[in-house]
Amino acid sequence: MELINDSLVALDIDLPSKQCVIEKIADLLEESDRLINRQQYIKDVFEREEIISTYIDDMIVIPHARSAAINNASLVYLRLNQPVDWNATEKAKFVFGIAVPADNVDNEYLKILATFARKLLDDTIKPIIFGSKSKEEILVALLS
After folding, report:
1. How far apart are CA 9 and CA 95, in angstroms?
2. Contact 59, 120 (CB under 8 A)
3. Can you give the pTM of this predicted structure?
4. DSSP structure class, residue 106
5. Domains in the chain: boundaries
6. Per-residue model confidence as pLDDT tens digits over 11-44
7. What would the CATH number be for the domain defined by 6-143?
8. CA-to-CA distance for 3 and 20, rounded, in angstroms?
9. Over 6-52, what HEC string results?
């Protein structure tokens, strides 16, 4: 199963809060049969957020969890119409949700995180991810 596909991408959506953002990630994972237990996944993501915020810069967040609630490693991309408060000082508009099974075979979690963090630093890929109206174009940029 591929890491991300068009059913795991939601563009230019309205969500009012961090809670709703994480729930939307869980919804997309669940609709794609990648989630075993929605509530457990949401709990695991919030527990990870308590350790340290997943805000990285430029209104980008990477909420993630290794969780027994996940059956396939997945990446979800949400682009919000309006930023939401992510923590006390930062707002999020571009959300990359990473979900990895708890066993984390071959450090898949770190590989995904490193790969997509590098892509977000690429000045040729970043404008496509943040501005394109085409899910296909965004997927090509993320997976290239």
Report:
1. 10
2. no
3. 0.93
4. G
5. 6-143
6. 999 999 999 999 999 999 999 999 999 999 999 9
7. 3.40.930.10
8. 22
9. HHHEEEEECCCCHHHHHHHHHHHHHHCCCECCHHHHHHHHHHHHHHC
- 23/11 Cα distance (integer angstroms): 16
Structure tokens at 140: 């090509």
Would you say the C-alpha torsion 79, 83, 87, 90 has a positive or negative sign? positive
Look-up of token digits 């995180």: 113
CA atoms within 13 A on the CB side of 102: 9
Token pair of 112 as six digits = 């995904």
Least Cα distance to 95 among 66, 63, 72, 129 occurs for 63
The type of residue at 119 is K
> What is the H or E stretch that residue 60 is in?
strand 60-61
